[in-house]
Amino acid sequence: MVDEQKPKAVEEILRESEKLFLGRPQIAAINNVTYGGKGFIFAPYGSYWKFMKKIIMSQLLSGNTLDILLQVRRDEINHFIKNLSRKASLGKSVEIEVILGNLTSNMISRMVTGNKYAEEDDEIGDIMKIMVDVDKLYGKLNLSEHIWFFKNIDLQGIQKTSMDIRTRFDALMDGILKEHEEARQQNIETRKVKDLLNILLEISEDDDMEIKLTRDNIKALILVLVNYKPVLLM
């Protein structure tokens, strides 16, 4: 057992024994949702994994990108404070857990796709609902994966659930991707701050990249980024 709280142990993991800690079990339901592990986290270690890591660290989550997106976070916090102040002046009660959840979701949604989670945009609200279902799916123990004579039987309906999540996410992302692609084709600058989806589309159009990003790659990465709250909110 390795104690990750100790600096030397962390150095051992990250620098000298990285490959030993990067492998993840191939779980069918998770593969369905992550487009066959194309979202980096569940991708097998190899050239694709290294390529995606480079993109994430050098472009999507670089200090420069997060600094540019700082204004988005500030805008949402200012809106949150004004909204809270308005409700307080009217004597309205609020559920702190709900409004803080919406604040976080709005920040993430705007940084990743340029759209807000709540208020007028039901589409992004649906995406965040899907994220809740994804988290529940990740936490379920699938007996069919662990008991060999049940491997071809969807005992708990987890496979069906995973395909339903994938279908819903596909439909929503297709609409968001179409909107971004049409704006790019018409050279319409609809946002003051470039969102992460636009960065991914630029990468997918770069013929010099060693690996060509597909729509499935982009969707899988968006799935990861929307759930990657700690880093995006730094």
TrEMBL record:
Query: Per its record, what are the GO molecular function terms?
Result: heme binding; iron ion binding; monooxygenase activity; oxidoreductase activity, acting on paired donors, with incorporation or reduction of molecular oxygen
Q: Which Gene3D superfamilies does this entry report, sorted A to Z?
A: Cytochrome P450
Major site of localization recorded for this protein: membrane
What the entry lists under Pfam families is as follows: p450
Keyword Oxidoreductase among UniProt keywords: yes
The alphabetized UniProt keywords are: Heme, Iron, Membrane, Metal-binding, Monooxygenase, Oxidoreductase
What Gene Ontology cellular component terms go with this record?
membrane
The cofactors named for this UniProt entry are: heme
Q: Where in the cell is it found?
A: Membrane
Q: Which family does it belong to?
A: Belongs to the cytochrome P450 family.
Question: What name appears for this protein in its UniProt entry?
Answer: Cytochrome P450
Instruction: Tell me what organism the protein belongs to.
Output: Mikania micrantha
